[in-house]
Design goal:
By secondary structure, the chain is of the alpha/beta class. It is 36% helix and 20% strand.
């Protein structure tokens, strides 16, 4: 009951953010809606997911298109070394940049996106990648620094063939949207039997 009250207050006022995160454990989709109201993002589009453990240092310089998912990644809007350089060299330097994430983009766990970059549309940034330059439309990037390793359209074709060959493919076809919690127990059982049946 307390979690419900905290969630209502958080969404209505923007207050109790830490308590909301701790007690309510929101999904990435719910948290993106919260940030749309109370975060300082330049823009968050529709159907976005921002998992609570994602680190966005300068949301005001960050724009998300529609259908974007940020996992436990880091989005940097500034160069942290500037403060050290200013003190060490007696300078007054500045280095900030936008991060513009277009429609239909997934950014994987542990990826780091540097300021001054545009990603997509229709792109995937692999787990652990370091994005230091623009990610072209329709590509998959991986590595340090991130480089194009494939095309999203080809990945979708490959995954469709693989999915249709799975023993639980008929359950996947029954899903309403991308996730259906009523099917998950049966899917988990079938997957465990398939993966570990000795």
């Amino acid at each position: 009951m307390l979690a419900v009250i905290i969630k209502k207050i958080a969404f209505k006022t923007g207050r109790f953010r830490k308590l909301y995160l701790k007690l309510c454990n929101p999904s990435g989709f719910e948290f993106a809606e919260f940030l749309k109201r109370w975060g300082s993002y330049y823009q968050i589009g529709e159907h976005c997911a921002i998992w609570p453990y994602t680190n966005v240092t300068n949301p005001e310089y960050t724009r998300l298109g529609n259908n974007v998912m940020l996992t436990a990644c880091t989005i940097l809007g500034h160069d942290g070394s500037i403060a050290v350089l200013n003190r060490a060299y007696g300078k007054k330097l500045d280095r900030v940049g936008k991060v513009d994430i277009k429609d239909n983009v997934f950014i994987g766990h542990g990826a780091i996106v540097l300021p001054g970059t545009t990603i997509g549309p229709n792109a995937i940034v692999a787990a652990g990648a370091v994005v230091s330059r623009d990610v072209p439309e329709g590509t998959i990037v991986a590595g340090v620094p991130a480089k194009v390793i494939g095309e999203v359209a080809k990945l979708v074709q490959k995954l469709e063939i693989e999915t249709n060959n799975l023993p639980w493919a008929y359950l996947i076809q029954q899903r309403d949207g991308s996730f259906d919690s009523s099917l998950e127990p049966q899917l988990k059982q079938m997957r465990k039997a398939y993966f570990f049946d000795d």
